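mind reviewing this fold:
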Amino acid sequence: MIEIGNKLLVAAPPPFTVYVKNFSDIAMAKGWRKAAMVATVGAYGEEWRAAFKEYWQKKGGEILIDKPANYYTETDFSAR
């Protein structure tokens, strides 16, 4: 809704694409060039992963791994 310019929309938090850009820019400023993605499954997670991957690679970063996680069924984040 924000991106199509609906003038009746009032949004308190910014769209998540703002976080993608800002977090990526901060990481790049620190010299980080490699990233791993672990995002929730579903529409929101898919949009996050696509937006981050596109921006990160555009800035010259490399995605080492992309693992969707179902937080409703997977709760153990320890190495196996």
Observations:
- The first strand starts at residue 34 and ends at 40.
- The chain is about 40% helix and 20% strand.
- The mean pLDDT is 87.
